[in-house]
Specification:
679 residues, single chain, eight-stranded antiparallel sheet
């Protein structure tokens, strides 16, 4: 886009005769040059009007020393134009070696870099590519980004207006800079803006197309296809363990262009899509964006009915802004405008990084100038550059929350993990394995007299117990389960304390596990969920698993002992922290492990592992930080039952669990996380 009163007017006209201008733009209509429909112009008036010294003065030492390109320019002039009389060979960096591009396709954290309008870097005899080179250097150099937010860049998307006037000599300069990406084997996309071309994508040959042809696009490892006219390109890249499509669409799609874009999405129906083009939305001073006239055409003809499109990026207008619209499927589409050519040094090669974090369900967005960062590192900042090193306003530095699994479920649902037979869960040393997918009908009460068999076949069966006076529906079957749970069923406990009510299970009298002391180690595992109506005062400190027999009865009377409490409990605190509180064989007091605070209405997996010396608690396969360092060996036993969902105080039932419990497994040795039931 542009904001200069003497910008090239011919390039501003759209295919519908409308001007696509920033606020306050007044472009005189002059004759076009060299048959492209574009006109020559200057940005010097704009720079003077903005109170900025001219680019020529900058080359002469505005930054404290002549920039690298200025020295190259002077050298070329002294030799009559340089090698092959090419005055545009002013790149300042050593060409990146071929094959350097190697992002991690499986890392759930990856970055798409966006570069908006670079037209003032390539403006007739005002060729100043160094800021763009610095941005490319940032994209291509993982070592230079070490420790930063963008350590896994997977794609670079240019948003159009590569040049100011669409002239052959401007592309002669631009192509040398983009050669850096080609030599490195980078995945990138380029598209034409209104300063590069005019009319629709059926315009035929132009200097832009000769420079950024389909043949050149094919060099990118992400290249998928081009429209027959050559102005629209589809890229598919791998990131976060899946494929992503990015469409680089022309300034103005024709009917044929719309048909092509829709067809390439239809041919890849399970791939999420990012649309990049030069114009879709513009923004007001509050940064609230809205569809432009042409943007409405794109919305109606491409975006709204293709649920795969979740993000669109465009330049052209300023200021930056964003909006969220609902598509025909009722899902969010995020539409962002980014353009900084109105700022110091024509935008100073400013880029915007979109860092996807699939684990957190967020895209973190940052805006900065790698070139100005380099100047700062060399101590060459001037007053204006110092203000542009990075932009941290809410419209330039922000996060977008997206539940990617939910957002993409309509076209690429994550398949549910199939149930696994019990025999596959019987790892060596399994003492007991209980699951609840073969019990009663979902939603029905667990009937009196129900026995849950030990799938390990050792006779460690569970029998139902109920607190006197407990009402119906205190314990029910459900098909709800953790997505990685082997058995697709669980129990819903509706117990509480103060006063105690509810139903629970306990191992039968004489079960072999009742007497086990686990002196050589153990692994206790289970899946569970805390419901939305959990109340810390009523349900806190209830046990999901415990062992009958009090510490006092077991002779545990050390400083960390509580005589009335059970010798083993896996409980939830009133704040929904896991607590493993046990009395080891070698201690007179208790040993305790804790988790962090857990969320309600979410399934969790917990594993408590002892290797014969040290006990560690894991949540969802991740080791917790609040694990004791003290040696604790085995588990005290009074040859009394284990309780599932029940808790005793001084030998009497005192609390019943409130929540859901899925598969439970007890093994007589330490298992690695790779062997847990959720692995």
């Amino acid at each position: 886009m542009h904001g200069s009163p003497d910008d090239a007017p011919g390039a501003h006209e759209t295919n519908d005769g409308q001007d696509g201008h920033g606020e306050g733009c007044s472009c005189p209509r002059t004759a076009d040059l060299d048959g492209t429909g574009l006109a020559a112009s200057s940005r010097r008036t704009f720079l003077r009007g903005a109170g900025v010294i001219s680019a020529g003065a900058a080359a002469a030492g505005l930054l404290g020393a002549a920039p690298a390109y200025a020295a190259g320019e002077a050298k070329g002039a002294a030799k009559g134009g340089g090698k092959d009389d090419d005055p545009y060979g002013r790149t300042s960096m050593t060409p990146a070696p071929r094959g350097k591009w190697s992002p991690d396709p499986d890392d759930p954290r990856f970055t798409v870099v966006v570069m908006p309008d670079t037209q003032y870097m390539f403006d007739q005899d005002r060729i100043h590519p160094v800021p763009v080179e610095a941005s490319f250097r940032y994209v291509l150099d993982p070592a230079g980004r070490a420790g930063g937010n963008d350590e896994n860049i997977v794609f670079l998307a240019h948003l159009g207006d590569v040049t100011q006037n669409g002239l052959t000599e401007e592309y002669a300069a631009a192509t040398k800079v983009f050669d850096l990406l080609d030599r490195a084997g980078a995945s990138y996309g380029v598209l034409a803006g209104n300063h590069d071309v005019s009319d629709t994508d059926q315009r035929g040959s132009t200097p832009y197309l000769k420079t950024f042809s389909p043949a050149r696009a094919k060099r990118s490892p992400s290249y998928h296809s081009s429209s027959p006219d050559g102005y629209n390109t589809c890229h598919i890249f791998k990131a976060g363990g899946r494929s992503w499509m990015l469409l680089s669409l022309d300034w103005r799609l024709s009917e044929q262009g719309f048909a092509w874009a829709n067809s390439v999405i239809k041919a890849n129906p399970k791939i999420p899509v990012i649309v990049t083009t030069h114009e879709i939305v513009n923004a007001d001073d509050s940064s609230e964006a809205s569809l432009s006239e042409y943007g409405q055409q794109l919305w109606d003809g491409l975006i709204k009915d293709n649920d795969q499109i979740f993000l669109t990026l465009n330049g052209h207008f300023w200021p930056p802004g964003s909006t969220v619209l609902k598509n025909s499927a009722g899902n969010d589409v995020h539409l962002h405008i980014t353009n900084y050519q109105d700022r110091y040094y024509g935008g100073a090669g400013m880029i915007r990084s979109y860092r996807f974090d699939l684990n957190r369900g967020v895209i973190d967005v940052a805006t900065f100038s790698p070139w100005i960062r380099e100047l700062a590192a060399k101590g060459e900042l001037n007053e204006l550059a110092a203000k542009e090193i990075e932009l941290t306003s809410p419209v330039d530095y922000f996060s977008v929350a997206i539940d990617f699994e939910q957002r993409f479920a309509g076209f690429a649902p994550v398949p549910s993990r199939a149930a696994r037979p019990a025999r596959r869960m019987l790892v060596p040393g399994t003492l007991a394995y209980w699951r609840f997918d073969e019990g009663g009908k979902a939603g029905k009460d667990v009937a009196a007299g129900t026995v849950v068999k030990d799938q390990a076949g050792h006779g460690n069966d569970l029998e139902l117990r109920s607190v006197p006076g407990t009402a119906a529906h205190a314990l029910t079957w459900t098909e709800d389960h953790h997505p990685d749970q082997p058995g697709h069923g669980s129990l819903v406990f509706a117990g509480q304390g103060n006063p105690v009510t509810g139903a629970y299970f306990r191992t039968v009298d004489g079960a072999p596990i009742n007497a086990r002391t686990f002196a050589r180690g153990y692994t206790f595992e289970m899946f569970f969920k805390v419901p939305a109506d959990w109340d810390g005062g009523r349900n806190g400190w209830s046990s999901m698993l415990s062992r009958s027999g009090s510490a006092g009865k077991a002779g545990k009377n050390g400083p960390a002992a509580t005589a009335e409490e059970p010798v083993l409990t896996l409980s939830l605190s009133s704040g929904i922290e896991l607590q493993w509180n046990v009395y080891p064989l070698n201690q007179t007091g208790a040993a305790t492990n804790w988790s962090h605070l857990l969320q309600q209405e979410e399934w969790w997996h917990v594993a408590v592992v002892n290797d014969g010396r040290i006990t560690k608690l894991y949540v969802n396969g991740c080791e917790e930080g609040r694990n004791p360092n003290s040696t604790n060996i085995g588990l005290t036993s009074l040859d009394l039952p284990f309780l599932l969902g029940g808790y005793e105080w001084d030998g009497a039932i005192n609390q019943v669990f409130h929540g859901s419990i899925g598969d439970v497994r007890i093994v007589d040795r330490a298992l690695p996380p790779s062997s847990f039931m959720n692995a």
